[in-house]
Structure formats: C-alpha cells, structure tokens
Amino acid sequence: GEDVEQSLFLSVREGDSSVINCTYTDSSSTYLYWYKQEPGAGLQLLTYIFSNMDMKQDQRLTVLLNKKDKHLSLRIADTQTGDSAIYFCAESIRRDGGATNKLIFGTGTLLAVQP
Amino acid sequence: IAGITQAPTSQILAAGRRMTLRCTQDMRHNAMYWYRQDLGLGLRLIHYSNTAGTTGKGEVPDGYSVSRANTDDFPLTLASAVPSQTSVYFCASSGRGAPYNEQFFGPGTRLTVL
Questions:
Q1: What region, left, alpha or beta, does residue A51 occupy, with left being phi > 0 and alpha being psi -120 to 50 degrees?
Q2: What confidence tens digit (pLDDT) does each residue in A64-95 have?
Q3: With pLDDT > 70 as the criterion, what percentage of chain B qualifies?
Q4: Which of the residues B25, B47, B68, B100 would you substitute to probe the A interface, choosing the one with the greatest number of A C-beta atoms within 10 Å?
Q5: CB atoms inside a 10 Å sphere around CB A8
Q6: Which strand (E) or helix (H) includes residue A74?
Q7: Out of A33, A42, A107, closest to residue B107 by CB
C-alpha cells in the first residue's frame, strides 16, 4: 500500500537544529520531497532528493534518505522563527506505465520555533 | 496572473447545495490535481488530470467530480455538499518538463458545509 507517516509536532529553540522524520512504504518511489506550508498559504517545494542519493545538502537544509528502512529526514540547521510552518514529506508514485505521476503526502509536522 | 489561482478564497455552504471550486493556471502545465487538507490527515488526492480531456480518481473521489475542458482550468464540483466535505481544498499543477515532478500549489479554498 501507499502510506507516508510523520510525527505531528516538533518544538525547538531558535538557533538549534530541527530534525523532521518521515517513513514511506512504496520502494519504487523515484523522488521524495519536502514541502513547506506557512499559515494560510498553499504548499511550496522546499527540497527534494532522487531515490539513488543518500544525502542532499542545500544551505541550512540537509536531507537524508535511508532506502533500506524507507526513512527520510529533513534537518534544518540554525532554526529561525521564520522556519515555523508545517512540513510535509511526500513520495512520488508512477502508475499507468509512467503516464500518471501522483504524490502521496504525509500528515505534516508542525514545527514551532521558540525565540 | 502568474501561477495558480483558486476561487473563492472561502465559502460557507448549506448542506445539499451544489458548489464549484475554480482553479486556473497559466504555466501551461499538463497535469492538475485537487487535494483536500484535514487536520491529522495531511493532503489527500481527490481527482487528477494528466492532460486536457482526461481525468482520474484519487484517494477520496466520492462526492466530487471534475472536468478538464482545456489546459488552464480544472474545476471541482460538489454536487450535493455534506458536512464531512468541510475542509481546505488545494489545486496543484505540474509540468512534463520538471524532472523531479514538482507540484505547484494554489492558495487554497476554505469550505465550510453546515
């Protein structure tokens, strides 16, 4: 089946590192994503990782992928109050011989950054 | 306009009424999607369209219908609204050229069914 799971809430102090975790079930996923949703807004792509990579770093963001355990994590270094948002993990699902590309989203993790 | 727009921004609707949520994109993306967002459940796919003239069912299609008469527009219709359809609805699109299949989201429509 297709299922993506995340913890619902994470609280950190400004300046600390945040680590948001995600587990997924479809081993055929080509890409895995982290989306960010700020209050009252739609989702925006934060970063993504191709399934043949173990790690991707982009400024303060580090994505780690463990394909064996189907575990994805997002680390935010030096977390700021502006990072407070809901973070969604998502996996891509290809069906119909590749004609259909769908994303399966996790439940979202609310990151609260305390000043 | 640039990106995806949705209308209305919010709506309060009596149960049993018909409602169409509008979505328009100007990026010439071939694929479009409708999701609903509910607390503790994340985003769930309602319907999708790979290209103009085709549609498909997502995880939670019951009570909803869509059409894709052209590339830009992808309306979502609730034929007879029920309270369980109270949610925030997001439209999204993606283009064939994006190798990582990024989906671009609209600002959402907050729907309350009483």
A1: alpha
A2: 999 999 999 999 999 999 999 999 999 887 76
A3: 94
A4: B100
A5: 12
A6: strand A71-76
A7: A42
